[in-house]
Design goal:
- By secondary structure, this protein is α+β, with helices and mostly antiparallel strands.
- The chain is 30% helix and 32% strand.
- Helix 1 packs antiparallel against helix 2.
C-alpha cells in the first residue's frame, strides 16, 4: 500500500506542478488528506537534548538539502519555492547517465529569511548524499550539505501567519536566553503538513541554530 500510494502521490504532484498555485495545492492537499497516512514520510534525524513543554533543544546529524532562494512576501515565496523544489524531486533533474529520477518527499518544508528574500529547502532522504543525487535542471535549485548542529525549536499548531511566526519566535528567543543558549542563525519556519490539514492538527515549528553561551 505504501509503495502504491507513493506512486500515485508522485503522479499527482507532477500534474499539480503544471497548473496554477491554488489548484496545485488542491491536488496535493486532497491526496495527502486521504491517503497520506499510508506513506512513511522521513524527517531529519536528531537527538533530543532537552524537552520543556513545546520547546526542545536538539542535536541534528548532518543532512543534504535541495533549496532555492526567492523574493517577495513569505506566502508567495513559500508557494513558488515549493513548486521549484518539488519539481526537482519529481523528475526535474539529470543524473550522470543522462536519466532523471524521482526522489522521495520528506518533511518538513522549511523557509528562512535570506538577505532581501527567502530560502526554502527540502531535506533529502538519508539514503542520499551529494554524490548520489542527480543535478537539478532548474538552475535556481541548489544542493547543499548541512553539517551536524544544535538547534532549538518551539512547536505550535494553527496557520503560519506573520503574527503567529513573530509570536512564536519571540517565545523561543526568550526560552533560549533563559537556558543560556545563543543564536547562530536566523529563525526558520518548518511546516510538516499538507495545506488541507485542519488548523488544530497542524504541526509547525520555529527552529533556530544555537550554541552554548561562552559565559
Amino acid at each position: 500500500m505504501v509503495h502504491g500510494a507513493r506512486i500515485v502521490f508522485n503522479a499527482i504532484v507532477v500534474l499539480a506542478l503544471q497548473v496554477p498555485g491554488r489548484v496545485a495545492l488542491f491536488f496535493v492537499g486532497l491526496f495527502v488528506l486521504t491517503l497520506g497516512s499510508a506513506m512513511a514520510i522521513e524527517e531529519p534525524k536528531y537527538e533530543v537534548l532537552l524537552t520543556d513543554g513545546p520547546f526542545e533543544h536538539r542535536l541534528y546529524t548532518g543532512f543534504v538539502v535541495a533549496e532555492t532562494e526567492l523574493s517577495g512576501d513569505f506566502d508567495s515565496a513559500s508557494r513558488n519555492g515549493f513548486r521549484r523544489v518539488a519539481g526537482y524531486i519529481f523528475g526535474g533533474n539529470q543524473a550522470d547517465s543522462g536519466d532523471s529520477r524521482k526522489i522521495a518527499m520528506t518533511a518538513p518544508v522549511t523557509v528562512e529569511p535570506k538577505d532581501d528574500g527567502w530560502r526554502l529547502h527540502f531535506v533529502m532522504p538519508s539514503s542520499e548524499d551529494i554524490a548520489s543525487l542527480p543535478k537539478p535542471t532548474d538552475p535556481s535549485v541548489k544542493i547543499r550539505k548541512v553539517p551536524p548542529h544544535e538547534a532549538a525549536s518551539v512547536r505550535f499548531s494553527g496557520w503560519t501567519t506573520e503574527s503567529a511566526i513573530a509570536d512564536q519566535t519571540e517565545k523561543l528567543r526568550a526560552w533560549l536566553e533563559a537556558r543560556g543558549l545563543v543564536e547562530k542563525g536566523p529563525p526558520q519556519v518548518a511546516r510538516y503538513n499538507d495545506p488541507f490539514t485542519l488548523p488544530w492538527r497542524r504541526r509547525n515549528e520555529i527552529l533556530i541554530s544555537v550554541q552554548k553561551s561562552p559565559g
